[in-house]
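pinned: reference chain
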Amino acid sequence: MYRVCIADDEIYVQKSIIQRIANCQIEFEIAGTAVNGLEAQMIYEEQRPDLFFVDINMPMIDGLDFIERVKKQDSDTKTRFVIISGYDDFAYMKRAIRLGVVNYIKKTILQQEFNEMIREVYQQLETDRTKAGQEEKTDVWLWSDFLESGIKDVFCGTCLLVRKQQAVRETGIFLKTLKKRTGIPSHDVFTEDGGMADQKSDWQAVAFGNEVPDILLLFRENQIMNGKEICQIGESENFREASQIIYFSGKYQNPEELIARFEDMLNLRFYHVDERVMRLREMENQKLSISYSAFSAALENARENKYKDCISSVLNRVFADVRYAHLLKQVYQSMVMVMANKYMKYGLPLPAQIRQELFPFAVSAYKTRKDLMKGLVDYAAELNQKMLLISSRCDLVDRTVQYMERNYREEISLKNLADEFFVVPTYLARRFKEKKNCTVMQYLEDIRLRKSKELLETSDYSILEIAQMVGYNDQNYFARSFRKVYGVSPREYRNSCG
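pinned: its structure tokens
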């Protein structure tokens, strides 16, 4: 899904564009809006959207000046800009063309014109994504492929873990910067048997799947870099904008364990660690006993606050001490596993997003503790609603049966029953058939005939009176239904009972 930002000082224009984007039925996500050029600058730096609608006449910084600033500060920007203007001014258009604006639309915005423009931009974005994907096949390893590639158990070299918004998209730029900065390894590196290591190995990149676009691992074997060199790289273009860089130089026995340690260090940011460039180090680990049984039970409880309280209680314990930072990923994924097991228990398809949360760097998408807690609560709420719906479906049939047992004397139709339980008739009919293997009205007739049979055996009411007492207005229809089920007429049955 492509991200869109809108900068216009008229709110109704923002709403109009948002509505027109929705009407196009193309996958665009509204990532931010601004009412002046300064806000637009802040949104751009935070979001780096794929498409930016910009009004020319805005307070503080006008639209064209804003675009020019962006182009100067970020010459490699991938954002496409569309100008919104109330004027057909050739000077404006000429400058917009010089700045590489992809389109120029005039207020009032016409839907057909807008549709043509947005589809054209969408095709451009799709083309760029295809090209980028082809380039990344040679530049970026996927973590699963990286492990299966036969990488040596002993890694010796330098690793940089970069956390930056859409870092994977900028792999080529990162690699280009590193090659320019580091060149051919300048340090002699020896293998364990005393021989000289291959110094011509180049920088490589590892990504961790589509759900982790902000984390990129860059590594170069056989080159040991010191902290000063890493800090210089961290202050270079492109790297300077990374929110965290964690580095390791030396030898490590197990790639998976190395990644786990990177995750632990990255999760330190939830504990108010301010360093941007951090050396990978051993963390002081502290054990913590956590039970997930209360959370498991709360997921099936109709009281919404129960599972929220359980999530809050567990995470607050983990956040109580920085020495528990290494537990954050384990605790998060354990709670996700509890939810995954519930999906399996109830026969529900496991959402792809839940599955993704069990992969490396699942916690990396969250910026704050509040976001992390909200993510778990949202997953739990979605599951809770699905489980309650399944339970209510089972209860629906049972409650329908109970209602008919109490009110079989009344005139009852499928629509009456559906209205009673606030469902549509076809839904009730389908659920009833699945559970009882007969229709609702067949089951109702069975109740009425059983009750009439009891009255024929134990009372001296007339056949007409019994028919009316069990809900039949037509004595002949009652007699035919009774014979069809029991093989004799109501009178013959009464005589046989003496």
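why pinned: The CA atoms of residues 158 and 249 lie 4 Å apart. The chain has 20 helices and eleven strands.
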